[in-house]
Description:
Elements: H1 3-18, E1 31-39, E2 47-50, E3 63-64, E4 77-82, E5 87-94, E6 103-108, E7 114-121, E8 127-133, E9 142-149, E10 156-161, E11 170-174, E12 182-185, E13 193-199, E14 205-211, E15 219-225, E16 235-240
Parallel strand pairs: 1-7, 9-15
Antiparallel strand pairs: 1-4, 2-3, 2-5, 5-6, 7-8, 9-12, 10-11, 10-13, 13-14, 15-16
Amino acid sequence: xxxxxxxxxxxxxxxxxxxxxxxxxxxxxxxxxxxxxxxxxxxxxxxxxxxxxxxxxxxxxxxxxxxxxxxxxxxxxxxxxxxxxxxxxxxxxxxxxxxxxxxxxxxxxxxxxxxxxxxxxxxxxxxxxxxxxxxxxxxxxxxxxxxxxxxxxxxxxxxxxxxxxxxxxxxxxxxxxxxxxxxxxxxxxxxxxxxxxxxxxxxxxxxxxxxxxxxxxxxxxxxxxxxxxxxxxxxxxxxxxx
Length: 242
């Protein structure tokens, strides 16, 4: 793990503990959660999060926008650290209605654990996918890529690299389904990959994503999100998993 990220996560974990009187053991690395806002709507689709176990205070709770940027792209991502070796209550709601949790569970993490929590769909039917990530070391000039479908308007999609047969990468990816990481060459001769998203039933082209600036020796997640006939439209956004 990058040294700056490591100490950043430890700092967040220590801040969390300072706000709670119960002592916690954070021996070793803290754990982390990637929270992704893929709830597609023209407005009123910000998320609020609370991991104190108490009531959500609307005015002070951290808010996550659909268009939040991680510094490289507007992918709706926020990564935050949590203490390990203790049970953490985590609640995520729409900012417009904090009385109806989309996600409301307790999470118990070991040091170094990484979770990804994808919140998707539409405001009236928002849902989630919680994934414990296993990032295996990549020792060759390769990059790991996985896909998740968080667009409620496209229940069944397929994925191929441009120029290759339909579904040659992923034959069918249902709504709220996530693939494993697949390794792709990332040598000096592999500059980019263009992934095409199609309707798995009709074969109709939906959108595409040009994966450039390859994450050599690392992993990324490509998130399909958005609406079919409205704004924000269907798109693919990148989340770095290192």
